[in-house]
Amino acid sequence: MKITRRPFLADLGMGVTGMALGAMLAEGGHSEHFTPRAKSVIWIFLSGGYSQMETFDPKAALNKYAGMTFDKTPFDNPLNSPLHRKRFRSVPSEEINVRDVYPTIFPMQVGWQKRGESGIEITDWWPHLAQHVDKISFVRNMWTTDNDHAAENQFHTGRHKLDESQPSIGAWAHYGLGSLNENLPRFVVLGGPTRSDTRESIDSLYLGPQHAGIPLALDPKNSLPFALRNADQTLEQQQHEYEVINQLNELTAIEYPEDQSLRARIRAYELAFKMQAAVPESVDFSQETAATIAMYGIDQDATKVAGQRFLAARRLVERGVRFVQVFPSPYGSWDSHQQLKDNHTKLCATVDLPVAGLLQDLKQRGLLDDVIVVFGTEFGRTPGLELRGGANTGRDHHPNGFTIWMAGAGLKQGHVHGATDELGYHALGEGHYVTDLHATVLHLLGLDNRRLEIPGRKRLEIDHGRVIRDVLV
Fold first, then answer.
1. How far apart are CA 139 and CA 472, in angstroms?
2. CB distance 322 to 173 below 8 Å
3. Structural contact between residues 205 and 341, judged by C-beta atoms closer than 8 angstroms
4. Where are the alpha helices (DSSP H) in 42-168?
5. What is residue 472's DSSP assignment?
6. If you ran DSSP here, which 8-state letter would residue 259 be given?
7. How far is CA 465 from its chain centroid?
8. Helix axes 340-364, 304-318, angle to 10 degrees
9. Which of 62, 118, 243, 258 would suit a FRET pair with 292, their CA atoms being 20 to 30 Å apart?
């Protein structure tokens, strides 16, 4: 029998490519670079930019010098600091951009006090979280550079809007780690992305689509709307359908062995079939006790949404999901250009009880020994009163200094790292750019951010970040 060149190469390719594809599908991920301290991450993001002063970094000087301009206080004028330019990269031209230069001091809009045995000051808008400060490491000297809400993407990718996009922190964790549960995705998103232009916050870009976050709905009957079996189709029929689709995709993979979208599609069909049972169970709260439901505030209208998402996050990490990214509030909710007091009073009340419940629940189940909780936002708010467009009750965007916190595996408890100046303006010292947070989380997962390199893709020094070692046990 005469064999032509094309079928011969195709048959040869079937063997080589098929083995490579099978290895790729069976591979749980890359091995850790060193012994991990944590297995999973719950990454909580509050969209819009909460005020660092009215949350976790209160400043008495704002009350003492309220109504004065920066240059009338005994402190160095923060606008004259070289840090102001270093940590401020405007997208609009400077001639029309007035952000971050409001010099009249706006007083604190809430009281505060020392909490817990550690005596850490947080504001009165967090009465339930205040009971858990002795479990938390606060980082008060974070900074970033984007002064607009593209900073939501920057917080997750490390890159400014004007730069080339990079994979998100969740995608890097997915890329670097094997699965703890083959029936669930490694990177799950709850409540987001908050809108189409924040897709980068969960995207994987050149790592390949198989490493992107998978948004889940919290309806056990429809948690995976695009993976549900038709009502008139049996499980066996669907399984055979997926087998045929995979065979066709694998044939196509012979001709296009570098097609990452195709490889991701093959993996997606395989995973979708497994997830049809595992995902609905993971977001089904019917087996949870009434006490647990109340702990998360799911039985109250104000806290129900955040509570459901946090409880789902606990259930997912409990079942082996590596990275759960949670958006407890809609896009831009915390953006308080006006009516900051009313805005933050309401929003803190929607998150305070649920996040305190999450920490309590993780602790009582022993999960804080394996899980990291990260709580952050894209930037802070200005110490000065915003006056644009007649506003006089809020604060503008502020990338120069803000606060995040972490709790859980490998982290110090009841600890404060870093500081801003007396007015809450600049992160003091070198401070920590957002990729320092990425490097710290990956380090706790057993990954060295500097070794997560892709052939043909050069990462910048700023992409790697520096581990915040002072918060580590």
1. 12
2. yes
3. no
4. 60-64, 82-86, 151-157
5. B
6. -
7. 16
8. 30
9. 118
Q: Are 373 and 44 in contact (CB under 8 A)?
A: yes
Residue-wise pLDDT for 62-108, tens only, equals: 999 999 999 999 999 999 998 887 787 766 555 545 565 799 999 99
**C-alpha R_g of the chain:** 24
**Residue recorded with tokens 């049996």:** 234
C-alpha–C-alpha distance, residues 164 and 326, integer Å:
25
Who's near 192: CB < 8 A, 6+ residues apart? 45, 198, 201, 202, 215, 325, 326, 327
Which residues does residue 457 pair with via DSSP β-bridges, in sequence order? 454
The structure tokens listed for 203 are 């995207």
* pLDDT for position 86: 78
Q: DSSP H helical segments within 70-221, as ranges?
A: 82-86, 151-157, 169-176
| Cβ contacts of 455 within 8 Å, gap of 6 or more | none
Tell if the pTM clears 0.90, that is, is over it: no
Unique residue bearing structure tokens 């198989």: 210
Give pLDDT tens digits for 128-149.
999 999 999 999 999 999 989 9
**Phi, psi angles (nearest 5°) of residue 268:** -65, -40
> Read out DSSP for 291-350?
HHHHHTTTTSTTTHHHHHHHHHHHHHHHTT-SEEEE--S-TTTT--SS-HHHHHHHHHHH
Q: Is the pLDDT of residue 255 over 90?
A: no
CA geometry: angle 96, 97, 102, nearest 5 deg: 125
Residue whose structure tokens are 């999450």: 358
Would you say domain 38-218+283-471 falls under CATH 3.40.50.300? no
Residue 225: C-alpha distances to residues 34, 186, 219, 262, 347 (Å): 38, 19, 10, 21, 30
Q: 375: which 2 tokens?
A: 């709580």
User: Residue 340: phi, psi to the nearest 5?
Assistant: -60, -40
- Cα–Cα distances in angstroms (integers) from residue 342 to residues 29, 57, 149, 268, 278, in the given order: 46, 19, 21, 44, 41
- 408 forms bridges with which residues in the sheet? 372
Backbone phi and psi for residue 324, each to the nearest 5 degrees, phi listed first: -115, 115
CA distance 385 to 402: 17
At which residue do the structure tokens 């998978």 appear?
A: 214
Measure the CA–CA gap between 381 and 371, rounded to whole angstroms: 29
- Joined together, the tokens standing for residue 371 give 């899980």
Distance CA 11, CA 426 (A): 63
The full DSSP string for 394-417 is ---EE-S-EEEEEEETTB-SSEEE
| CA dist., res. 233 & res. 217, Å (int) | 23
CA-closest candidate to residue 416, choices 109, 91, 139: 139
Q: What is the DSSP string of 4-72?
A: -HHHHHHHHHHHHHHHHHHHHHH---PPPSS--S-SEEEEEE-TT---STTTTS--HHHHHTTTSBGGG
CB of 308 within 8 A of CB of 294?
A: no
